[in-house]
Amino acid sequence: QVQLVESGGGLVQPGGSLRLSCVASGSIFNINSMGWFRQAPGKERELIAEITSGGSTNYADSVKGRFTISRDIAKNTVYLQMNSLKLEDTAVYYCYAHLPNGWGQGTQVTVSS
């Protein structure tokens, strides 16, 4: 397993931006894929962005064009740049790793005026 620690959440106004970071306990070079889920109150956990070991990215339709996932292998870190934030983006955001597996503790993102 791999340990993951997220940071970067907070309170932002609609239209604003935040960048989430996910630092892994070891090298992310050989991790099959990493990404971000989010869970809003009363809703199921939703996969919103992923990046594969080859660098390919995929996004949920709800965030496509607004969010960007990237990674810095030297820093063992995956990022989620979130722009043009909407009220409905309010959720707890979780970083995950697949093969080896791991989950972060979650970071709260609140979009409110």
What is shown here, in short?
Strands 2, 4, 5, 6, 9, 10 and 11 form a seven-stranded mixed beta sheet that branches. With 113 residues, the chain is mostly beta strands. A hairpin with a 4-residue loop joins strand 5 (46-52) and strand 6 (57-59).
Q: Which helices and strands occur, and which strands form pairs?
A:
Layout: E1 4-7, E2 10-12, E3 18-24, E4 33-39, E5 46-52, E6 57-59, E7 67-72, E8 77-82, E9 91-98, E10 102-103, E11 107-111
Parallel strand pairs: 2-11
Antiparallel strand pairs: 1-3, 3-8, 4-5, 4-9, 5-6, 7-8, 9-10, 9-11
Describe the protein's architecture and organization.
This protein has 113 residues and is mostly beta strands. Helix content is 0%, strand content 51%. The strands form 2 sheets. Strands 2, 4, 5, 6, 9, 10 and 11 form a 7-stranded mixed sheet that branches. The protein is globular. The protein starts with a strand and ends with a strand.
